[in-house]
Amino acid sequence: MDGPATTTAIEGAAAPGQTAAGPDGHGRLGTAAERGSARSANRAEIVSFEPATGAEVWRGKASDIDDVVARARRAWPAWAAQPLSTRMELVRRFANEVRKDADKLATIIARETGKPMWEARIEVENVVNKVEVSIRAYAERTAQRKLDNALQGTMAVRHKPHGVLAVLGPYNMPAHLPNSHIVPALIAGNVVIFKPSEKAPATGELLARCFNRAGISAAVCQIAIGGPAEGQALVAHDDVDGVLFTGSANTGITINRKLSSRPDKMVVLEMGGNNAMVVWDTPKITDAAAIIVQSAFASSGQRCTAVRRLVVKSGMYDAVMAEVKSLADRLVFGAPFDEPAPFMGPVIDNIAADGLTESFLYLLSHGGRAIKHLVRPNDSLPFLSPSIIDTTAMKDRPDVELFGPILQVIRVDDFDEAIAEANNTRFGLAASLVGGSPQEYNKFWANTRAGIVNWNRPTISPSHAAPMGGIGLSGNHRPTGYYAADYCAYPVASGEIEQPRAMIGVGLR
Ligand code: NAD
């Protein structure tokens, strides 16, 4: 792969490095060297900050990974031996604990990520709703099956848990996304080590506490505080049976490489996207603009399924882009608890904001034409305005995931060209067609390479009742969502009969 796939800074743009910042209140960890020495002397300190203010939210020591894994290993047999009904009951109690702490959890999510409070509340609802969905999915996808086989007895298909699973979470939905792995993993009889993003440890801690208060012990669902170093230690640990990862393609590829000689481990990689939305003939320009703006700028563009590239039919271009710009101009960006509520908050930190700014300038200086400039009202905070840039004239558009509020627009003349443009990426997470006829949608669906292909719907907010995953650099063909049950347990086929019954039919002397 050439260069980083997920970034806030296009390679070649004079962006700051990928190491975290120093003590200016906006960095998250020390440099790699500082982290290394702190770990060997005593464990590294993890600190999270409010993107909206720079204020410290949480501070604590990184976990000792060997200890955490040993505790999980000891807890696994008893948890796996619990009846399925008990494990289901306990995750339902977890949902109740989250309901009780809903305000607190939403507040901490909003503080640590900077997303508006209304959006943090939706994330909490998603955490709760995931429980019943996961119970249904377990029953449907990994239920026990018995096939009667007359004289041969029974052929049974049952599922077993893998053992100790490490869940590595991203910062953008720091409760809902790890939870989408944790709940199905626990139902299936695995014990879980949950390492939240180093940018959202307080959210992770509160989520883990809800599991523990529900009666799922701190050894069965255990939190491991840490950053990349602790993530690497979990991935490399011999006593970890699987890694369920949601995060950037760069990290996912690193994990994949690390485990390339370990086919025995379950590896689930949910990664980013460079998602396209194609706009074709439609009289409903206002609705189209709302779909585009939601898809590109919700969560300040910090969604894996966000639209990065808008592919617009030439004949529609002026009308669509005028409406999109006018709507984007009206979006309020502000702090999570502002009243009236903003549409979107800041990006996660100053490093991300610097990188996105440099990336916008890179696009501008390589043939892009700004339709709406990226504006950063305060250099010391990571608030960024929505931005739109026409990159049709660019020779080589960098195929990277710009994880922020930057929408690139490409103008095309015919539908085949639009599909080719949508597929012009190494990623394959989400794509959407807005407008067009049923025949055009059929063609779009059949020819677009992505795990989510929508029609007249945003690319974001996929359904819980559906699988969620991508191809290319977006995932390793193990979708989460409704299909998470599949990777949380392995099938065992058993031919069974109460007494031995056999004879050799051919070839006896
Ligand atoms: P990230 O890759 O930086 O970090 C994710 C997790 O991996 C964190 O817990 C981090 O500490 C850990 N980690 C980092 N380096 C590691 C290493 N070398 N070994 C093991 N663990 C390591 O991702 P992020 O910036 O927190 O999240 C944003 C990214 O996540 C975006 O690319 C976004 O598209 C993606 N994402 C994907 C989905 C999906 O479902 N496909 C959903 C949300 C976010």
TrEMBL record:
Keyword Oxidoreductase: yes
Entry GO MF terms: succinylglutamate-semialdehyde dehydrogenase activity
GO biological process: L-arginine catabolic process
Region (Disordered): 1-41
Entry annotated with the keyword NAD: yes
NCBIfam families to which the protein is assigned, alphabetical: PRK09457.1
PANTHER family in UniProt: ALDEHYDE DEHYDROGENASE-RELATED
Assigned protein family: Belongs to the aldehyde dehydrogenase family.
Listed name of the protein: N-succinylglutamate 5-semialdehyde dehydrogenase
Organism: Novosphingobium colocasiae
Lineage of source species: Bacteria, Pseudomonadati, Pseudomonadota, Alphaproteobacteria, Sphingomonadales
